[in-house]
Amino acid sequence: MKQINYLNILSKHTGADKRKKSVFGVMYFTFLFFLSSFALQAQVGEVIWEDNFDTFNTQQWTKDIGDGCNVGLCGWGNQELQSYEENNVYVADVPGEAGNKALVLEAKRENSGSRAYTSGKVISDNKVAIHYGMVEVRVRVPNLNQGLWPAAWMLGTSNLTWPAKGEIDIMEMGFSQSGRDHQGETASTVNNYVGANAFFPTPGGGVGNIAYDVDYNKPYVAATPLNDRFVKYRIYWEPTQIRFTVIDGGTEYDLYENPFPIDANNPNTSTFTKPFYMLLNLAVGGLLPGITANDGINAPLPGKMYVDYVRVHKWNGHGSVTLSDGSIAAETGTFGVFTDTTPTTNKFAFGADSEFYIFGETLVENTTIAPYEGSNVLSFTNDKDKGWFGAGIISLFGKNMSNYSENGSLKFKIKIPADVSFIIGVNDNYTNAAEVTFPAGETKYGLVRDGEWGEVTIPIEDLGGLVAFQDMSYMFRIGSSGAIPATNFQFAIDDIVWVDGNTTGCQPTEVTPYYNINDQSWVSDTTVSLQTGNSVAFGPQPTTGGSWSWTGPNNFSATTREITLSNIQTSNAGNYTASFTNDCGVTTSVIFNVSVTTVSTFTPDPNKVYYINNPFHNKRIGANGSEDPFTASTTTTGATLEWKFTAAPNNSYYIDCVGGEGNTRLRSDNTDFTDMQPSSYAGTWESWQITSANDGKFYLTTLESDYKRLQMTDAGFLKQVSTDSQGTWEQFTFTEVEESQPPVNSCTKVSANGDFNVKITTTSEGSYLTFIPQVTSVGANTLILYYSTSLDAIYPGYMVQPNVPQLINANAGETVYFYYTYSLPTGGETNTANSKMNFIVGSCNDSARVSEAIVKKEKKEEFNIYPNPVEKELIIKTTSVNSYDTVVLMNSAGQVIENKKLDNITTLIIDTSNLKSGIYFIQLKGKTGVKTSKLVKQ
């Protein structure tokens, strides 16, 4: 089934600049922000684009004009008071910097239409698109007190509406007093407080932003006002995160506790993995300053915002800038909107340049209807209670389909009940739309209503009218027409293609996929499931004419039609693209999606003793000399639970209990139950084959005439079942009773509290840390790994899972320091920061924890807060009277409960007896900075 994103987007409006600021945002993520990482090998590269504003470059910037009403967004969505005017944007000399010019955005108290103020704004939409990199702006703002709102920010270039397109605020100032109070900066002023933000969609059509979390947000409060002098603002943007900073006086300050994590596979943050354009503006009034009436503006006017330059550098190898004149190259031939195997000249790549959207949650994806062609289909059940339905496929960056407007056609396959009336339509990027209606029960455009797949061909001229085909948004749209049936129904759409009726030249050749595994029969499919050790041959057709080329994982390439991959490993997984160029020069491709499952193997050592466990039941097998084996908890030990393996014929083993006395050998008696017999028994009923069940588990199968598989029942009995049974009750693991020496480059660390062990493994790919619980359910709900190659650094956090190796970013010979935060089975969490472990990459001959000298260094704190949890009195001690001067006690919502001065004392006692039970925060401020600690009130 095709992946569908449920963003309730009905249509695109041109007012994409709608913004909601931090004090009004909806916080969707909470602690996720604390799990991001900052690259250990971070590197700023060369400048890939810049504008120093020596002149105003109209090829890169557009002066945005008006008050937003012209695009249906009066006040620009924020109740702003100004109208942006062309004359308020110009290039001028920078005061005090001889020979240097800058872009000027000037706010004035003058009328324009119904507005009492004018100002300036520029955008790079359709001219300059930025995709990753280190973006830096050098900005000087005027006196903002109170009512001016300067910003340097970015919006996604996609056709989606805000917030689905995403917003990145590199800097903004002008926050109201209530906004600053919300962040806990009650003593700050509008001119020395600056923040940053990012907006994104949340499930159900909501809006999320990162600034709303006061514990994560860390606006910069300067000691010297930031107005009337230049300050640099940056984002470090890469495929996995965005870091926001400000550089003041040569010192760089982070604007958030950790970089904001983004993920191309997360529907909320995937928008930040696509290109954005730049906006620079100086607003007057609005929601962020908290002034929405003309007489509330007190800032001295005119006020000038200077932008000295905008620069984009490579960052960690990432970064690109696309320059455009706004035009889109015209498509020709056949264009695949949604198709797998149908030959097309070009086609959409979902997630990269297109998306499928359901309108108003009116449809639910199902797997009932099989694809018409290929392996993907758009198959749905409607929700009759909605009273309507709709969905569509949108081009994220526009498509020029002007070559199709006269003789072209829109073709697709549909399977839909005869009593459903529906429309098929398209939209351009100028708010225009066109559609045709398919009444219930009628044959139209070739559609026969017989309950089977039908083919529809709509001439594009029937979808004409005002539609601007040179810039299309929705390339296919379906919706209800009038009343829908009283009961839910199912329908499906497939093989959607635009056909250019003007192209009479060379046409693409259909490519048919074929593969075989281990020299077995050929299969015509693109989904290939392999196991490690397999071989696979690909042999797509046609077999004659033209030429072939291949690309694949690990820089794989080939120029023959048929290729073979032997001894498949997990590194071979991925997409293999076979491209066929026919004799007249048109190329058609097919993509084989290869997945590889690791097959576990186990060869018992005859000199070692093992436990045989069933992890599903948490029991292990035992025997004490009677005919009946028994089972016990996996925590039970002793000779009666220990087993040895001896090689038997046909790649099988005899399994004997060390403490089994007279009847030591495990046997299937060819009945339901398993029994024990003396070791002198050596027939097929006593020999067991070990076969993989994957994930480190194995089946035990006997060799009697009708093969039987060992099973542990829910009651703990050992029985025999058919080999057709392959459930969890038949899966076992083998664990050495006496742990052998760890292999080279592998070792185990033991936590100070005994809750867990950490296995350290180094391979050619790097070093892995595996958290192994020693107490049941430790880390089951929350498990965060913190590590760094610097003991005194801020340790980034990574969400990990118990018993799953986590690759870390460090080089051979470096010392890695690490600790965990993990959930407890009794509730709450434990943090082991005070018992850090360490190891040297490539060697495990280290102490289990940081040496005493290092621990002492680590524990040298500038302050101490105890007891925690607290009941009646909280004691705060600092190392020096010069360390901190203010102590703030806040609740979990960021509201200030107490604000006390230290007044040259090193010890402060706060009465907490009247506080309600819950989470609080203690914040210490002073010359050494701001420190925040979490406090638990019992």
From TrEMBL:
CDD domains: GH16_laminarinase_like. The keyword Cell cycle does not apply. Residues 47-318 form the GH16 domain. The keyword Magnesium does not apply. One of its GO terms (biological process) is carbohydrate metabolic process. SUPFAM superfamilies: Concanavalin A-like lectins/glucanases (SSF49899), Galactose-binding domain-like (SSF49785), Ricin B-like lectins (SSF50370). Signal peptide: none annotated. One of its GO terms (molecular function) is hydrolase activity, hydrolyzing O-glycosyl compounds. Keywords: Membrane, Signal, Transmembrane, Transmembrane helix. The chain crosses the membrane at residues 21-40. NCBIfam families: Por_Secre_tail. PANTHER family: GLYCOSIDE HYDROLASE FAMILY 16 PROTEIN, GLYCOSYL HYDROLASE-RELATED. Belongs to the glycosyl hydrolase 16 family. This is Putative secreted protein (Por secretion system target). It comes from Tenacibaculum adriaticum.
